[in-house]
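=== Structure Prediction Worksheet ===
Name of assembly: unnamed complex
Input type: mixed (protein and possibly other molecules)
Chain count: two
Listed entries:
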Amino acid sequence: MKELSLHILDIAENSIAANAKKIEIFVNENTINDRLMICVKDNGKGMDEEATKKIIDPFVTSRTTRKVGLGIPLLKAAAEMCNGNLTIESEINVGTTIQVSFQRSHIDRMPIGNLAQTILHLVIGSPQINWVFHYQVNEEEYIFDDMPIKNELEGLSLTEPLVLAFLREEIESGIKNIRPEFEY
Amino acid sequence: MPTINSLDDLKKIREEALKKRDVKNTAGQKQVIVGMGTCGIAAGARETMKAILETIENDNLSGIVVTQTGCIGVCEMEPIVQVQIGEGEKITYGKVDKATAQRIIEEHVVNGNVLKDKVIPM
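=== Predicted Assembly ===
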């Protein structure tokens, strides 16, 4: 995977599989401290301590279709190459929080990529989940919570073309408004 | 720090969309499912999903529901897209690039013609 936003999509997929009702995604770019932090927090079924320790091992996965899980080990390796790390906190029946950090300017740090597309696809693809997205750049913050939108739509599908356009424009402009001019 | 453009806009959108749906939606729900497991994402599923959503938006296609699913066990055929019209059989497509994704929406979902060359047996 060549973009961090693809990793976000991948990590969030684990939260969906854990039957989360609410998933929060945080992306925090700090150009002053030169850090980039990404966090995915869910209220899914959670894991015990042993499973949490094992999940960063590429040969452990809860999937039944294949015996190898790769998403988290790949992201952990990517963070560690860039003076960063990956941590997982999880509790049974409470949820799981995965946090990953990078030195923002590190030469090996993957670009964030198309964050708006990732968020849009998560919101559209799993409409049963309440998605909250926080994007922070230094002191500025954009928050997208799909709950008020869904309430207003009263069950109308998110893939109706007019709704789709509304969501896409909302998320794209929210991110663009505060995104730093330069990736590094 | 407003989070939503305008909920009033959304109200209008909802009313308009509902009007359109009443006219068009007679043949049962059209469901499109995109595989978004690690395997799918690594194979380019996000671009596939993007092409599907763009086609819906650009062609103004009402009455299609697009959702995602995790790995369904045929990782080597990712990106995978499944189509189900009403209560009909679920058709699974493999190696769906952007162009194929657009064809699936326009030919299969809209006109009901299965893309036989892209179907994978499940």
